[in-house]
Amino acid sequence: MSDTTEKPEDNETVRAVKRARARAEAAAESSKKPINWKAAAGIGIGSAAILGALIYATRNRDKSK
Question: Structure pTM?
Answer without folding.
Answer: 0.40
